[in-house]
Amino acid sequence: MTDNAIEAKFNQRVAFHKYSVAHITLFISFVLSGCTSLRGASRVIGSMLSFLELGQPVPSWYSGRLWLLRLGYYKLHREQEWADDWIWIVDHTVQSGSEKCLVILGVRQSKLPENELYLSYEDAEPIALLPVTHSNGEIVYRQLTQTIEKTGPPREIIGDHGTDIKSGIERFCRDHEQTCYIYDIKHKGAAILKRELKNDPHWSEFIQLAAQTGKKVQQTCLSALAPPNQRSKARYMNVDKLVKWGQEKLCYLDMLKSEPDDRFPPRQADDKLGWLNEYRDHLTEWQDLIEVVKTVEGYIKFVGIYHDSHIDLKEDPIFSPHTDRAKRVGEELLTFIEEQSLKAKPGERLLGSSEIIESVFGKLKNLEQDQVKSGFTAMLLSLAAVVSKTSHDVIQKALETVPTKKVFEWYKKNIGQSVQSKRKEIMSIARKTEQKWDQNTTVFLN
User: Fold this and answer.
1) What distance in Å separates the CA atoms of residue 12 and residue 271, rounded to the nearest whole number?
2) Whether 113 contacts 87, CB under 8 Å
3) Which of 128, 144, 343, 374 has the most crowded CB, counting CB atoms within 10 A?
């Protein structure tokens, strides 16, 4: 591209905008695709424009934030086609405070990837963002019912078995016979692992010793051998990392007996990690248990739910539990998939994993950074900006049709006063009280 062509792109502006469509597209691309922070995107564009000697103005992070929110508002509110093959992916996102937001992403069955069901951000459409200060089955039911106005009743709703979500979806499905409720395979797997490991005294001892080991070695030459941090929430979704650590360190201790490593004195390594030898057989059993759960999760994410999907999985060579415990869990998962497959029509394929929505939540928290601690803010709209296609034309259409005023109106209506705003008010009252107290004290002393 010639210098004149580049200059022409930066001179193409949306009506009543200071910055060009190229400025705005670059900023949003850096944030959404490059995982750059808002301030980082502003600095990168400044460096790029300076290097190319284009003499163009550099947008501030705040301008970029408004562009992102306007794009999210546009994607969230644009008209969707009514159809009977919509799949709704639902879940709650929670931040600081008592608020929850029911998020509904949508994808058409007719537009699912043909070969595999791993959804990308571009495959999903933002259907609804519904913040509430309190949630239960009745509220979720009403939220789902009002969302019908946008897409029509869906063919499938996929989510976890959270009490309010499960109750609301089941009631919705009773009203709409064409809609089936599919339990996300990853949450099902995590629930099984939780049941199996929570009641296992050896597992409880293992995770306690692992946590103690992490503290003992973090400030020593053995810090590279420390176990991975254990999650305080949804910890049964990443137990595989801890088990893998245990097995790897056992192999390493075995190697040190014949091949000493100068970086880690064998006696010191054995002193801190030697307790793992007592769990050698348990680690093998846990690994087999985790492997069968992960295999089923991966299979269903790849092929979806359809008639006889449980039979195909059982006959697949990748499904090969070895221990009695893993075989029992494997049979339980096959029974679960068989029950789910009965909800599919002949020749139909349903989505079996809601992993895409968990990924979107992670992206939102990355965009919000420290604002996560302040509860929901207008940045919630950026969740809608993350998904579906973000082309040059989509960005231009969003800026032409969504004034900043609409973003503020949406925020005031749906979120209201944020936790951060309340915190500032309390601090202001405290300062005024403190000033009044100081004045009274001064008068008293005089």
Assistant:
1) 67
2) no
3) 144
Task: Please say whether the beta carbons of 289 and 329 come within 8 A.
Answer: yes
Two tokens, residue 139: 């509220």
Q: Pick the residue with more confidence: 53 or 313?
A: 313
Which one has a higher pLDDT value, 258 or 361? 361
CA distance 206 to 299: 29
Going from the C-alpha of 82 to that of each of 64, 74, 113, 153, 407, the distances in angstroms are 33, 18, 20, 9, 25
How far is residue 148's CA from residue 143's CA, in Å, rounded to a whole number? 9
Nearest to 388 by CA among 401, 397, 378, 376: 397
Q: What is the mean pLDDT of the chain?
A: 87
pLDDT score at 2? 59
Q: pLDDT of 396-437, one tens digit each?
A: 999 999 999 999 999 999 887 655 555 555 556 656 666 666
pLDDT value of residue 370: 61
Q: Which residues are bridge partners to 314 per DSSP?
A: none
pLDDT tens string 193-211: 999 998 899 999 999 999 9
Confidence of residue 217 (pLDDT cuts 50, 70, 90): confident
Looking at beta carbons, which pairs linking 78-86 to residues 24 or more positions away fall under 8 Å?
Answer: 80/106, 80/125, 80/127, 80/150, 80/151, 81/151, 82/151, 82/152, 83/108, 83/110, 83/151, 83/152, 84/152, 84/153, 84/155, 84/178, 85/109, 85/110, 85/155, 86/151, 86/152, 86/154, 86/155, 86/156
Q: Are 135 and 164 in contact (CB under 8 A)?
A: yes
As a whole number of angstroms, the distance between CA 46 and CA 26 comes to 11
* pLDDT, mean of residues 80-91: 96
Phi first, then psi: give them for residue 135, nearest 5 degrees.
Answer: -135, 140
pLDDT of 233 over the 60 cut: no
Nearest to residue 361, comparing CAs of 346, 341, 379? 379
Question: In the predicted model, what is the mean pLDDT of residues 118-125?
Answer: 92
